[in-house]
User: Fold this.
Amino acid sequence: MTSKLASLLTIMAVLTTVLTANGYSQVQAQQASPQVRQMALYMVRFGYNGTQGGPDIVVNQGDTVRLTLISNDTVNHDWVLDASSPSPYNVKSARIRNVGNTTTVELVANFPGTFKYYCSVGAPGMTTHRQRGMEGNFIVNALPSADLSAQVKTLDDQVQSLVSSVNDQMSQQKAALDTLSSQISVLLALSAAAIILSIVAIALSISASRKKTDRVS
Assistant:
């Protein structure tokens, strides 16, 4: 194995480790287990948590959302997230009134997007609590599954490219070794032939010398 091939293998091993670790950390970040999000909302006239409107509720897709609604008013209020939000959800809490009374509402945030939660209280022909500003944003962050698939594919392509490069180097090395082996075989054959010819020449020379000596005698 040449130093070039050894260096390429080392680089591949290091890069594969880095890419795998990076991909794993991204998978952990992007596919974290769904969480249970709990929040308390104080319902007042006309808002949640003591202000006009209501706070942003921000969760991730798949999270379970548990809201504790606490009345801080003497009139009815509720919490609604439905087609009128508009949203694909259909959630509505019980109506409560008078300071200290509570109710709960729970949903699974399966649909990503930004929607409006609101209070649906309001007599026909009268201005509703929502129209008076009693609403807020319900924000569900989508899981970037498409981006994750693209990242995994990119990592896989990079590793496959490195494997292909190593295979090419190994094929070239094998071809070079095969050529060298053939050359060595030829050299050995030539060397053997040269040795045989030398032996034959020596034998002929000795035979000729003996014949000459016999004639002299």
Summary: The first strand starts at residue 36 and ends at 44.
